[in-house]
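Run log // design_07
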């Protein structure tokens, strides 16, 4: 893959930021090259096969049955140095972070991100990506890793936008970005495994001291 161009030279990053400013969300159909998407999907499947994906939490101390009634995905956080494909994704998202900061002055400090695998039938009920006890998450970004997703297989991300519903199928290389505290959304059940990389740009937390 050619080296990433500088943020200011990358029209797709500017388009995302323009969308965020104008309406609070953005959708890009082909955000990354197919070979990087396939490497990320293989990395997610490798982790799943090794039993590294864990049931995702929804808060603190939630009973397992309550959790599964709200979300049924399994996740693993990614860290720099995990794998070359993950590092390349983190690099691109750091360019996006800098572009957002330059244009929108959100003061985003970092990007946290996990693989997510929804087995057939799993869903995530309507929610906001902002915790009551932690308001550092400002911008959500979901990259889908599913080759050859067919209409009728379900698994859409459903966003609730000013009284209107907007569905995004989880097709390979699609990216959705939205303001974490403003856009309620849910994940609809699918008839096949649904893989993604889900992440959040965060600002600095309030220091209690
Ligand atoms: C989440 C989430 C959306 C998706 O993990 O908080 O809403 O499409 N994911 O996977
Ligand atoms: Mn969410």
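design_07 sequence
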């Amino acid at each position: 893959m050619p080296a990433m161009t500088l943020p200011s030279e990358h029209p797709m990053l500017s388009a995302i930021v323009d969308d965020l400013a104008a309406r609070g969300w953005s959708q890009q159909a082909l955000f990354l090259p197919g070979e990087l998407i396939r490497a990320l999907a293989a990395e997610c499947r490798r982790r799943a096969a090794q039993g590294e994906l864990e049931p995702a939490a929804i808060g603190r101390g939630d009973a397992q049955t309550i959790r599964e009634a709200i979300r049924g995905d399994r996740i693993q956080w990614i860290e720099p140095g995990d794998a070359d494909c993950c590092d390349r994704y983190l690099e691109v998202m750091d360019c996006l972070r800098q572009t957002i900061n330059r244009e929108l002055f959100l003061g985003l400090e970092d990007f946290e991100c996990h693989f997510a695998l929804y087995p057939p039938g799993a869903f995530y009920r309507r929610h906001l990506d902002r915790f009551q006890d932690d308001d550092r998450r400002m911008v959500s970004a979901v990259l889908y890793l599913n080759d050859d997703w067919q209409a009728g297989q379900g698994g859409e991300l459903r966003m609730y936008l000013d009284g209107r519903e907007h569905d995004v199928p989880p097709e390979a290389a699609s990216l959705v970005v939205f303001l974490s505290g403003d856009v309620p959304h849910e994940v609809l059940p699918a008839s096949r495994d649904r893989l993604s990389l889900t992440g959040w740009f965060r600002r600095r937390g309030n220091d209690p001291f």
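Residues 11-203 form a domain with the Jelly Rolls fold (CATH 2.60.120.620).
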